[in-house]
Amino acid sequence: MVPENLAAFSRQVLAAAGADEPTAEAATRAMMHGSLHGVDSHGIRLLDHYATVLESGRVNPAPEVTLKRTARATTLLDADDGHGALAGYRAMEEAATLAQDCGLAAVGIVNSSHFGPAGAYALAAAEADMIGLVTCNADSFVRLHEGAERFHGTNPIACAVPVAGQKPWLLDMASSAVPFNRVQLYKSLGQDLPPDVASDERGEDTANPEAVAMLAPLGGAFGFKGAGLAGLAEILSAVVTGMRLSFELLPMGGPDLSTPRKLGAFALAMCPDAFVSRDDFQAGMEHYLEALRASPARASGQVMAPGDREWAEAEQRRRNGIPIDPTTLENFERLAERYRLSVP
């Protein structure tokens, strides 16, 4: 589908579901980031879910987001149970503003909800010539290393770095082997999962998306690394902000879609100028990326920097359109009928 038409449809649906303009714009911006950059699990396929939780009462459709300065370079953002994308963008905007004066600044987010692709908010920092770091926790769906029950959420970590004359260096990763929405996507497409990414009720590996009861931590046989990264995200997002731990959160998929989930998140912006001159920083990034991309690849392989694949995918999708999986298309048709809209 044409990206502009898809974005317009998203804003129309969210508005029809009761969202105010800032909420509809932020949620659409975040979803389109996911869909354009090939992060389909956190892209426009979330539209049906977001419309549902807005109407059901879980997400405040017109929140009064407030900022409380807690120290010279730290702020606490209360999302007022609004959409996580609105909180994410505003938190990074505040962090980047403070970092211009303080060198680096952090914003803790409280009383929020699912915010989609963490990379969208890290990228917002890079677009303001800052280094951005974002993380959040989520409801338990990932076992510990050698564990046999859900403990952490997928707990993503994202970082973006500006590069003069180029697209930013962009890392966006779940601390689980895959995000749960990737399982849903594979289920919709009728495809088997890759090995060592998900487990059944006993904690044993499964490739069948229908049998998945939990995800594996990132790292396969060395999953203690992914579990440790999930713990880092948990501490910054929930412990530091006073929000609920992953195993205390209501599941994203319900059945209770009317009670706010009270999610926490964390955003940090750093101004490179606080450490070296801007010229030296940019020269260093260019030198690093030039050497990285020139590094010899294995047979049939290709060496890329974080973000290279996503930027190439975004260019292709802007030109040829965004692919929509069958389940999402069915949801679009149902949403269009419910709100008397036209499918893009």
Helix/strand layout:
Layout: H1 3-16, H2 21-36, H3 47-56, E1 66-71, E2 74-78, H4 84-102, E3 104-112, H5 119-126, E4 131-136, E5 142-143, E6 150-152, E7 157-161, E8 169-173, H6 180-189, E9 198-199, E10 214-215, H7 224-239, E11 263-270, H8 278-294, H9 308-320, H10 326-339
Parallel strand pairs: 2-3
Antiparallel strand pairs: 1-2, 3-11, 4-7, 4-11, 5-6, 7-8, 9-10
Describe the structure.
By secondary structure, the chain is α+β, with helices and mostly antiparallel strands. The protein has one domain (3-277, 332-339): Ribosomal Protein S8, Chain: A, domain 1. The chain has ten helices and eleven strands. The protein has helices spanning 3-16, 21-36, 47-56, 84-102, 119-126, 180-189, 224-239, 278-294, 308-320, 326-339, and strands at residues 66-71, 74-78, 104-112, 131-136, 142-143, 150-152, 157-161, 169-173, 198-199, 214-215, 263-270. Strand 7 and strand 8 (169-173) form a beta hairpin.
**What is the number of domains?**
1
Low-confidence stretches at least 5 residues in length (pLDDT < 50)? none
- CATH topology (fold) name: Ribosomal Protein S8, Chain: A, domain 1
Strand content: 15-25%
Backbone shape = globular
Main beta-sheet annotation: 7 strands, mixed
Average pLDDT score: 96
Which sequence of strands runs across the widest sheet? 1-2-3-11-4-7-8
Q: Got a strand count? A: 11
Level-2 CATH architecture: 2-Layer Sandwich
> For the CA atoms, what is the radius of gyration?
20 Å
Helix content: 25-40%
Structural class: alpha+beta
